[in-house]
Amino acid sequence: MRLKPSQPKDRLILALDVPTVTEAEAVVSETSGVVGAYKIGLELIYAGGIDLARRLTAQGETVFLDAKLLDIDNTVANAVRSILKSGAVMLTVHAYPKAIAAAAEAALGHDLMVLGVTVLTSMDDADLAEAGLVGPVGDLVASRAQKAIENGADGLVCSAQEVAELRNRLGSQVVLVTPGIRPSGSETGDQKRVTTPTDAIKAGADYLVVGRPILNADDRRAAAAAIVDEIAAAL
């Protein structure tokens, strides 16, 4: 399995954060060939997204299933075994050691990259405190990231604000996937730990997840292509 992207386009993952499969298929039709992969998250998973993943992979598209699994070991492992049938090549699991270990073992020998989710990019120090978690965010991310890799994760989902530190701490082989990407001038929305494509790449991110800046564009294909150009310039 090729974990690292080879071309600038491969580094761009378009989040299909839309409510219906019909809308998702329209986005794919508009952007196919200019993005590296399509992310199917919880909203779409529960609206037919798994069947969509199967169809997209059959068409030769790369699919990232953002399921954010977390449950008892056996349930996580069996969920991964079911997900393998979708053809997805990237899967998120919350970065709790036992959940990561169960997912990694179930995916062993298959073309499925297990990515640990450390701290959601919509959360800051105040949110951690409200949830009863010990911060600051950067320290919790580093701790969870280290344990995720030790328990078999192929990579991590983290904000670009933590990428440089994680790259230094974990080395060049760990895959780092960065959501919360906003091209210059874009609104941040509900994301709090955001950055530009250029800064994320220069910090050491391998893949960038972009949703609304492309989905809400008048010309989605052109918006995606512009981000790929920015990625290429930053490499």
TrEMBL record:
Question: Could you name the active-site residues?
Answer: D66 (for ompdecase activity), K68 (proton donor), K68 (for ompdecase activity), D71 (for ompdecase activity)
Catalytic reactions on record: orotidine 5'-phosphate + H(+) = UMP + CO2
Metabolic or biological pathway, per its Swiss-Prot or TrEMBL entry: Pyrimidine metabolism; UMP biosynthesis via de novo pathway; UMP from orotate: step 2/2
User: What are the recorded Gene Ontology BP terms?
Assistant: 'de novo' pyrimidine nucleobase biosynthetic process; 'de novo' UMP biosynthetic process
Q: Fetch the Pfam families from UniProt.
A: OMPdecase (PF00215)
Which residue range or ranges hold the Orotidine 5'-phosphate decarboxylase domain? 11-227
Q: Where does substrate bind?
A: 17, 39, 66-75, 121, 182, 191, 211-212
Which keywords does this Swiss-Prot/TrEMBL entry list?
Answer: Decarboxylase, Lyase, Pyrimidine biosynthesis
The EC class name is lyase
Q: Can you name one GO molecular function term for this protein?
A: orotidine-5'-phosphate decarboxylase activity
Instruction: Tell me the domain of life.
Output: Bacteria
Q: Which CDD domains match?
A: OMP_decarboxylase_like
> What's any one GO cellular component for it?
cytosol
- EC code(s) of this entry: 4.1.1.23
Please tell me whether the keyword Lyase is annotated for this protein.
Answer: yes
What role does this protein play? Catalyzes the decarboxylation of orotidine 5'-monophosphate (OMP) to uridine 5'-monophosphate (UMP).
Q: What NCBIfam families does the database record attribute to this sequence?
A: PRK00230.1, pyrF
Tell me the subunit arrangement: Homodimer.
PANTHER family assigned to the protein according to its UniProt record, in alphabetical order: OROTIDINE 5'-PHOSPHATE DECARBOXYLASE
Similarity comment: family membership: Belongs to the OMP decarboxylase family. Type 1 subfamily.
State the name under which the record lists this protein. Answer: Orotidine 5'-phosphate decarboxylase
What organism does the UniProt record list as the source? Amorphus orientalis
Q: Which gene encodes it?
A: pyrF
